[in-house]
Design a protein that fits this description.
Helices cover 45% and strands 3% of the residues. A two-stranded antiparallel ribbon has the order 1-2. A two-stranded antiparallel ribbon has the order 3-4. Helix 6 packs parallel to helix 8 and helix 8 packs parallel to helix 10. The longest helix is centred in the middle third of the chain and has 17 residues. The N terminus and C terminus are likely disordered.
């Protein structure tokens, strides 16, 4: 659930099948920004993703977004039910040249489910996702692409919002959980999840994929992740591991990875390791989903002290990730290290509905939000689909 979806990473999708959108080597000029969109940067590669995260984060803190923001997201859907990363001209029907993807579709399904009033659109999106499930039970970023932990996990989240038992969604004999288990490393490999096998079938631990897959293996979504109550213990190999076993091992891996510095790290070729703010936020959610708020205290406190500048530079998706992390870890999103994350997020988009408006304008949304919020806990994870090895 990381906000870094650069053109270089996206283009790598074509070459190596990673879980980010494919783009041409020379992307077209930035489109004019729609009025309902959150953020001021080019939405070509992340418009639906960041809009979805923004709406989910606002739902989690009981803030009603402007109708224009919801309408913009709903208007991105194709007739098939799928969503592209960005659809510049919603008045034009989707065609074969417009690439749709599982991540945008699953995130949008979760967001539209949360805000309510778009049941038909959500049903179409989930139906499309089920139609492109791989034979191993998982999903790749694009239809037919090799399954990866991140894409499979965000689709699990979409299924969960519809109260669909994840284990019943199968292609032949395989469910999404089977796909995640094939990407789970034994304790000798740290108990982490890999993003995908390499060309030789080898699995490499990846913190980004692990943060996503822990929540996915628990069958939860961004909209309503519940804080867990099981202490994060050491990795344990089981003869026949369950999804819960894999989630526990992945959580143990993340706990160890953040123990020293309080954060995950990433590195670009030729540069030193750098704090990875987005994946650290995702790790907070995963740790809390498995072991409760106490399990996420260390990285959450680190984010409170250090993430303000990163969020300001990266915009709505970053603020949304931090809100989800704060919600998961039991912190206050309106006073997160001295920053009001909700205020900062809403400032990037159309003005939200306020209490001063006629109650008739808001009552339906609030009734939906109140009902859904009863079981809410926290956000989910996906991230920069780079395949670099994480600590």
């Amino acid at each position: 659930m990381n906000v870094r979806r650069s053109a270089a990473v996206l283009a790598a999708t074509v070459a190596i099948g990673t879980a980010t959108p494919a783009v041409a080597a020379s992307p077209s000029p930035s489109p004019s920004l729609p009025s309902g969109l959150y953020g001021s940067s080019d939405p070509t590669y992340d418009g639906v993703w960041r809009q979805s995260l923004a709406l989910i984060a606002l739902y989690r803190v009981h803030a009603e977004p402007a109708a224009a923001a919801v309408d913009w997201l709903a208007g991105q859907q194709c007739e098939s039910g799928a969503f592209p990363a960005f659809r510049a001209n919603p008045a034009k029907a989707c065609d074969a040249k417009l690439m749709v993807d599982t991540n945008s579709t699953a995130a949008a399904a979760q967001a539209l489910s949360a805000v309510g009033g778009h049941g038909a659109a959500v049903t179409k999106a989930v139906t499309w996702l089920k139609s492109v499930q791989n034979k191993d039970g998982g999903w790749g970023y694009t239809p037919g692409g090799a399954s990866d932990a991140n894409s499979t996990s965000v689709v699990i989240g979409a299924l969960a919002t519809q109260n669909i038992p994840v284990s019943t969604i199968r292609n032949g004999a395989k469910s999404p959980y089977d796909a995640l288990l094939t990407l789970s490393l034994p304790c000798a490999g740290g108990g982490a999840f890999a993003y995908q096998p390499d060309k030789k079938g080898k699995l490499t631990a990846n913190a980004d994929a692990t943060a996503a897959a822990v929540v996915g293996a628990l069958g939860q979504s961004m909209v309503s992740v519940k804080a867990g109550d099981k202490k994060n213990a050491a990795c344990t190999d089981a003869a026949r591991p369950t999804p819960g076993d894999a989630a526990a091992n992945g959580s143990a891996y993340l706990a160890k990875a953040v123990a020293k510095d309080g954060h995950l790290t990433s590195a670009l070729p030729g540069s030193e390791n750098q704090p990875d703010y987005g994946n650290t936020a995702d790790a907070v959610v995963a740790l809390a989903a498995r072991g409760g708020t106490a399990a996420a205290t260390g990285p959450l406190r680190w984010l409170e002290r250090n993430s303000a500048k990163w969020a300001e530079q990266n915009g709505p998706a970053a603020y949304a990730q931090l809100i989800l992390a704060a919600e998961a870890g039991g912190a206050d999103p309106s006073d997160f290290g001295g920053t009001d994350l909700v205020e900062q997020l809403t400032a990037t988009g159309p003005a939200p509905v306020t209490a001063s408006q006629d109650d008739s304008d808001t009552s339906v949304w609030w009734m939906v939000g109140a009902g859904l919020a009863a079981g809410a806990g926290v956000g989910f994870l996906l991230s920069s689909r780079n395949k670099r090895k994480q600590p």
